[in-house]
Design brief:
The complex is a heterodimer of chains A (367) and B (635).
Chain A: H1 6-26, H2 41-74, H3 91-120, E1 128-135, E2 138-144, E3 151-156, E4 158-162, E5 167-173, E6 178-182, E7 186-191, E8 197-201, E9 207-212, E10 225-231, H4 233-244, H5 253-264, E11 276-278, E12 297-298, E13 303-304, H6 314-326, H7 328-331, H8 336-340, H9 342-345, H10 353-365
Parallel strand pairs in A: 1-5, 4-10
Antiparallel strand pairs in A: 1-2, 2-3, 3-11, 5-8, 6-7, 9-10, 12-13
Helix pairs in contact in A: 2-3, 5-10, 6-10
Chain B: H1 17-21, H2 26-55, H3 65-99, H4 108-126, H5 128-131, H6 155-183, H7 196-228, H8 243-275, H9 282-295, H10 311-339, H11 348-371, H12 373-376, H13 383-413, H14 419-445, H15 462-492, H16 530-540, H17 567-583, E1 586-588, E2 594-596, H18 598-619
Antiparallel strand pairs in B: 1-2
Helix pairs in contact in B: 2-3, 2-4, 2-15, 3-4, 3-6, 3-8, 3-13, 4-6, 4-17, 6-7, 6-17, 7-8, 7-9, 8-10, 8-11, 8-13, 9-10, 10-11, 11-13, 11-14, 13-14, 14-15, 17-18
The chains are: A alpha+beta (367), B mainly alpha (635).
Chain lengths: 367, 635
């Protein structure tokens, strides 16, 4: 048997404790993107499989690395070592270490295949359906109008869903390949231009979740985020109806001046202020702004509009939208608006301070 | 031979730069490959350090998003195509002919051509930092992001042409090594007596020959889309956006084994020597390598589990991917079996070989994790994958390559590296590897996407990113020691002798550095570890003390070696110039209007003309001039 000096034993014990501590320290379910904190059946099934394969992997890791360390210590060359016996192989042992891993992998393969099929097929084909469309670099969401099957409601950046209900998601893209990922609710599925990927999601708890594009999609891939707000069923219905309402048209003169700027400065080439459109109508290039002031974030998650209570805060929104409009290139380098909007392309078309303030007032009124 | 215009006298440069440009000696070409590849590897390392420094803290703006995207694209492309692959090629060149008892490769001039073409492709890529149009589409170059609509400019064209030129180099080298290994083994060396490194070189070369045409076709299609407005990947015109991914990964996954199999070969040679035992289960290890290479073709879609291929495809590729773990595991177990009961010496090569095994096990386990298609959806494109690939390619391939460098350094230079510095290098690498890459498992499972230039604080990523960056700095220090050790020992190291490790394979039976003709007499091989057995036999006979080689310099005088040649270099130069021209062939403006760049066309034609003329001259140049004008051809 292997005999170790106490120093070695101490070192090995220390290394094992350190690794265990690092593992525990590394898995922090409270973080917003953590995959260890499944809040829905899809993420849960994926996490369950991860635990299975992690356990299998840990066994293999300990056995193999342990045997290597054992050999290193036990068979290290000593003075006066004879030339060892020239063993060329052993069929029994070799068969065992072919069959063993194979059996282990079969055990892992079975739940893998079952879950693969389960996650693909939605348990409720008639459930609420959301179309998610990727743009460089923001997410657009489209819902069927609750009253008018010919119409749909469009908005951006925040995905609202009811709790405890299956939601079927159709994924697409207007430009390059993106990916739809809500770590706590479901693993990623790619959003392919021209391709019709579908998935289903379900959240077990109301709350606020983080989502992000996970497929490299160009210069601002890092800032292509979205947020998921999971409502109770009543809240969700109320929210959907409010989202279908037309934009508020405040009589405030500054807002009206801002609206004039919005309509004349070229914004409408890419942005709409009408959330209800015909089904299948081609979207403009920029996010629909009908209720922009009620969104938790703008510019694909570059700006967070929430106050400390977690609700959208008017003052923060105003500050954010102003920073964004003042210099979008600085806030999100390479974004399409900074590149293509006349106000940013041509110095003579740049917004004056008065126009900017009016525009900020107008956009802040769009709740 | 009749007089042909453009006649240039045969090069006779025993020393100096022209002796290197015209050399067709496999050992010198091996050195050229190795030195160039390490320079490229270090440039890729600097790119990696810049990435790590940018990500050390949240919300840093040291690097613009565009430059960041160029950095990670260049880092991966450099490390794969200009680092690990040519480092393996350096070993193919230097080691394989020595291991099989040959005097050179089958096609020495083609070998020189491979190197110079590789250099040309490498320069095309790396020079893009100077022209300001480095590629930025990722090493995988997914369409439509790499299409002209979403990626104007010439960055992607640089990437395409560089890979095409590198592909020519790789294909030429692969054919060369397949023929060399199959035809030029010393008498008695049956296939099942070949050293493992030679075996894995053969398997890798076959993989390369089969895999590269796929990416070549895909790159041509992409180039035609960009330059001439074709619609292979144009979704607006009805193309399938996923087609590129299939083509890329049908190449890309065998490519992974092209990177790792030579590393496994190196380790399979080193562990027996430092254990003083033959490789445990030689036949199984060979077979496992062949099976890995074969199955490498059946797993490409595990890179595409989230693309939406459907549950049937995902299940099949999940299972095939798991299956590939079995032959991989067999290799690991056989290395352990080799060590079991041995007499282990922990010189630097062995340390790196063991580092390879231990790190590769971790990378292999996380690899099987990715085979679980549903849970892979939570890991794909996160830092968990970054951790995985670096355990396989850095802890794996690079550790094995460094093991090989230390192992064959005395054979290459005739001198010994500094053992103390070698060990220091190893421990810095081993610790640095784990400090850099292990935390990426955590950041990945904590949902950090890869390929993002910046991140916000408060997501649980700050601490581990800082740790990773510190680890990268440790690795950098390790490499500085390595460079110092190599540079110093090459000139001033202790004289190593022909067989410093008590080696088992033929390369240790000849002097260090080997004479130009390698073997005075082509050996007759009687056993698998022939040199080891030969030494045992001599010991038993108590014959002459075991001295390798019989290194009398005069003995080689009657040996005919192929003479140096200018033409491989000039064919490669033509390819380089032609490739540079093609990059800028078409200008595409913002509205998609294409105009021909006449200057670029001229350069392209000039380069191709140079290449064709040089090929023509090459084909009429005899291997040895009939009229000897000196050197070894003299009788």
């Amino acid at each position: 048997m292997l005999r170790l000096s106490p120093r070695y034993r101490y070192l090995i014990a220390l290394a094992m404790v350190g690794m265990l501590a690092a593992l525990l320290f590394g898995c922090t379910p409270n973080d917003p993107h953590s995959t260890f904190d499944a809040r829905g059946p899809v993420a849960q099934s994926q996490l369950n499989l991860f635990w299975i394969i992690l356990a299998a992997g840990a066994i293999v890791f300990v056995l193999v690395e342990g045997a290597i360390i054992y050999s290193i210590i036990k068979f290290r060359r000593r003075r006066n070592d004879e030339i060892p016996e020239q063993v060329e192989g052993n069929s029994t042992v070799e068969f065992a270490w072919t069959a063993g891993p194979t059996a282990l992998l079969v055990l892992v393969a079975i739940p893998t295949i079952i879950t693969t099929f389960d996650n693909q097929v939605s348990p409720d084909q008639n459930a609420l359906t959301v179309d998610v469309v990727g743009h460089q670099w923001w997410f657009e969401f489209r819902y069927r109008h609750p009253d008018d099957p010919e119409k749909e409601i469009r908005f951006a950046n925040d995905l609202h869903i009811p709790v405890d209900e299956v939601v079927n998601v159709n994924l697409g893209s207007e430009d390059v390949i993106h990916s739809f990922w809500i770590p706590k609710i479901a693993g990623k599925v790619d959003m392919i231009p021209g391709g019709g990927n579908t998935m289903w999601i379900q959240a077990d708890q109301t709350g606020f979740y983080y989502g992000q594009c996970l497929e490299f999609c160009g210069v601002q891939h890092a800032n292509m985020r979205f947020r998921v707000i999971v409502h109770s069923e009543e809240d969700f219905d109320a929210w959907l109806r409010s989202e279908a309402e037309p934009a508020i048209d405040s009589p405030d003169p500054l807002v009206q001046e801002g609206k004039r700027v919005f309509l004349t400065a070229g914004c409408t080439a890419c942005h709409q202020t009408q959330s209800v459109v015909n089904v299948g109508q081609v979207s403009l290039q920029g996010p629909n702004l009908t209720h922009v002031a009620s969104r938790t974030n703008i510019a694909g998650g570059v700006f967070d509009n929430r106050g400390e209570d977690g609700e959208v805060n008017d003052a923060i929104f105003q500050r954010n939208i102003r920073t964004w409009l003042e210099d979008p290139e600085k806030a999100k380098t390479g974004n399409v608006m900074a590149r293509e909007a006349p106000s940013y392309m041509n110095p003579e078309d740049a917004l004056s301070e008065a126009e900017l303030s009016a525009l900020v007032a107008y956009l802040s009124s769009l709740k | 031979m009749t007089t042909i215009p453009l006649a240039i006298p045969r090069p006779v440069h025993p020393t100096g730069i022209w002796s290197w440009i015209t050399t067709i000696d496999h050992k010198r070409i091996g050195i050229l490959y190795g030195v160039t590849a390490f320079l490229m590897f270090f440039s890729g390392g600097i790119e990696a350090l810049l990435i790590r420094i940018q990500l050390a803290r949240p919300e840093q703006n040291l690097i613009t998003p565009e430059i960041f995207n160029q950095l990670f694209t260049m880092h991966a492309t450099t490390m794969i195509f200009l680092g690990v692959m040519p480092l393996s090629a350096a070993f193919f060149n230097f080691v394989v002919p020595l291991q099989i008892g040959a005097r050179d490769v089958a096609f020495p001039r083609l070998n020189a051509f491979s190197y110079w073409t590789f250099l040309g492709g490498a320069l095309i890529l790396k020079m893009s930092w100077l022209t300001g149009s480095a590629p930025n589409g990722g090493w995988f170059g997914y369409s439509p992001l790499t299409g002209i609509t979403y990626n104007p400019g010439h960055g992607i064209d640089v990437w395409i042409l560089s890979l095409q030129v590198l592909g020519i180099a790789s294909l030429a080298a692969s054919f060369n090594f397949i023929v060399t290994i199959l035809n030029m083994r010393a008498p008695g060396m049956g296939l099942m007596r070949m050293p493992l490194f030679t075996w894995m070189t053969l398997v890798t070369a076959i993989l390369l020959v089969l895999a590269f045409p796929v990416i070549t076709v895909a790159l041509i299609e992409l180039f035609f889309d960009r330059a001439f407005g074709m619609n292979f990947f144009n979704v607006a015109a009805g193309a399938n956006a996923v087609l590129w991914q299939h083509l890329f990964w049908v190449f890309g996954h065998p490519e992974v084994y092209i990177l790792i199999l030579p590393a496994m070969g190196i380790v399979s040679d080193i562990i027996p020597v430092f254990s003083r035992k033959p490789l445990f289960g030689y036949g199984t290890v060979v077979l496992a390598g062949v099976i890995i290479a074969f199955m490498g073709w059946m797993v490409w879609s595990h890179h595409m589990f989230t693309v939406g291929l459907g549950p049937v495809a995902n299940s099949v590729f999940a299972v095939t991917t798991m299956m590939i773990a079995v032959p991989t595991g067999i290799k690991v177990f056989n290395w352990m079996g080799t060590m079991w009961g041995g007499s282990l010496s922990f010189k630097t090569p062995m340390l790196f070989a063991l580092g390879f095994v231990t790190m590769f096990v971790i990378g292999g386990i996380s690899g099987v994790m990715h085979a679980i298609a549903p849970s892979d959806a939570q890991q794909q494109d996160t830092y968990f994958i970054v951790a995985h690939i670096h355990y396989v390619l850095f802890g794996g391939a690079i550790f094995a390559i460094l093991a090989g460098v230390y192992y064959w350094f005395p054979k290459l230079t005739g001198r010994m590296y500094d053992e103390k510095q070698g060990q220091m290098h190893f421990w810095l690498m081993f610790i640095g590897q784990n400090i850099t890459f292990f935390p990426m498992h955590f950041t990945g499972l904590n949902g950090m996407p890869r390929r993002i230039y910046s991140y916000y604080g408060g997501l649980g990523w700050d601490f581990w990113n800082l740790v990773s960056t510190l680890g990268a700095l440790i690795l950098a220090v390790g490499f500085l020691i390595f460079i110092y050790n190599m540079a110093k020992s090459w000139r001033k190291g202790e004289v190593a002798g022909s067989d410093p490790w008590d080696g088992r394979t033929l390369e240790w039976s000849i002097p260090s550095p080997p004479p130009e003709y390698n073997f005075v007499e082509i050996p007759h091989v009687e056993d698998r570890d022939d040199w080891w057995e030969e030494k045992q036999r001599r010991r038993e006979r108590r014959a002459v003390p075991v001295v390798a080689g019989g290194s009398d310099a005069d003995e080689g005088h009657d040996i005919h070696l192929p003479q140096p040649s200018y033409w491989p270099f000039f064919v490669s130069l033509g390819l380089f110039i032609g490739g540079m021209g093609l990059i800028y062939l078409m200008n595409v403006d913002a509205d998609g209007i294409r105009t021909l760049n006449w200057a670029a066309l001229t350069v392209t034609v000039a380069g191709l003309f140079m290449g064709v003329v040089s090929v023509y001259r090459w084909s009429f140049e005899p291997v040895n001039d009939p009229e000897p004008d000196g050197g070894h051809a003299a009788h």
